[in-house]
Write a structure and sequence with these properties.
By secondary structure, the protein is of the alpha+beta class. It contains 2 helices and 8 strands. Helix 1 packs parallel to helix 2. It is globular, with a radius of gyration of 16 Å.
Length: 145
């Protein structure tokens, strides 16, 4: 029987707004990446001005940055969960998905919640993606995605 060494590898970007809260921006295990919820925050950690669309654009940008840091990209997202504080923004979410994803579009759940981690946040996106980058891990052969 063949066994696999599945270790958890933390994914971080700089700046890392998650560090003070003892959260990982993402975890890579095997050929999968699990990205924590990415909101519309700027590098200073504050929610961007400009309403829902501006926050959505920033959230997708933050998602892409975390995916790339883990060895993947938006084209290899298999599943997203998008949390909204107001489902009336659903049309904007469809437009954002059209802009940032391509066919085959990822599986998706869109959920309205009463609030996110800060009252100003209107959207948060978490994702599961396939690793696309071939990497050498210590003591192993080349990791094939």
């Amino acid at each position: 029987m063949k066994t696999f060494n599945m270790t958890l590898e933390q994914i971080t970007t700089e700046p890392d707004p998650y560090k003070p809260f003892l959260l990982s921006q993402g975890i890579r295990v095997g050929n999968l990446i699990f990205i924590s919820g990415q909101a519309g925050y700027a590098d200073d950690g504050r929610i961007v001005d400009g309403g829902f669309r501006a926050q959505g654009e920033q959230a997708f940008s933050n998602l892409e940055r975390a995916l790339v840091a883990g060895g993947s990209n938006l084209n290899n997202v298999a599943k997203v969960t998008i949390f909204l504080t107001d489902m009336s923004n659903f049309g904007d979410v469809v437009e954002l998905r059209r802009k940032y994803f391509s066919q085959p579009y990822p599986a998706d759940s869109i959920v309205e919640v009463s609030s996110l981690y800060t009252p100003e946040a209107m959207i948060e996106i978490e994702a599961v993606a396939v690793v696309t980058e071939v990497r050498r891990d210590a003591g192993s052969e080349i990791d094939q995605p």
